[in-house]
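User: My advisor, Dr. K., asked me to get a structural model of this assembly before our group meeting. I'm new to this, so sorry if the format is off. These are the inputs:
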Amino acid sequence: MGIMERMRLDGKVSFVTGGARGIGKAIATAVAEAGSHVAIVDMDIDEATKTAHEIADTIGVKAIAIQADVTVKEEVDAMISTILDTFGKLDVAFCNAGICMNIPASEMTAEQFRKVIDINLTGVFLTSQAAANVMLKQGKGSIINTASMSGHIVNVPQPQCAYNASKAGVIQLTKSMAIEFAKKGVRVNSISPGYIGTDLVLEAPHLKVLIDQWNAMAPLGRLGRPDELQAIAVYLAGDTSDFTTGSDFVIDGAFSCF
Ligand code: NAD
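Assistant: The format is fine. Below is the predicted structure of the whole assembly, which you can bring to the meeting.
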């Protein structure tokens, strides 16, 4: 079988948190195009339902929407139960939901700091742990966490200490779980995107105004697009990446190289 066929995900079952829009939607669409059934997990059930219908109608795989807040363990567990009731197994988990807050470190309240860490780091822990506990029983599975180039560099000029700390945490969480599960068939990797043109950036008034400054610093002179993260997502989900675990894939147009 050629490499393109071996990269297909036919018959697999995947979930994507934060899958309703942006990077998560691009990832869910990509794995569905490669043949995987998919659960779109999001707090925003209306948008998640729209995305699931769009994927089912245009691609033909089974796609369902599940409402869950990744910071609430009971909701994460219920999400896993729904997936197992619907599909009978879980092959691929994309722990992708995240938020950004741009507040100077000297002014950030404990509550604001905790909120970012809770969604971006604890949320990834809870969803990847719940997925792993299914996959460890199966003896196989692939977990892919969305980190960020902010886990490697400090973005400027916007102040975002909690976000940067949370994403550095995701990278180390990923590597720690990869080591623990390595001999048990469960792989854990992360993707670290650079600036990508999604609502997180384009709809936030305080970030939108910075795009020209970022582009002036960017070696490629532009933002990335969500579709430019699709191939790495399909690769990590599938069996051709069986020797790939504990790795972080920086896809940032060389932004973090200097
Ligand atoms: P987005 O804001 O467009 O989408 C995020 C989705 O996550 C939304 O649908 C939202 O409803 C959902 N969500 C938020 N909190 C949630 C929670 N507690 N439980 C469940 N769902 C929740 O964002 P995006 O740009 O697509 O970002 C996706 C991921 O990629 C995030 O982890 C983000 O930090 C990361 N990232 C984004 C960029 C970028 O430039 N856009 C760069 C690097 C990393």
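One thing worth pointing out at the meeting: The beta strands are 13-17, 37-42, 63-67, 92-95, 141-146, 186-193, 248-251.

User: Perfect, thanks a lot.
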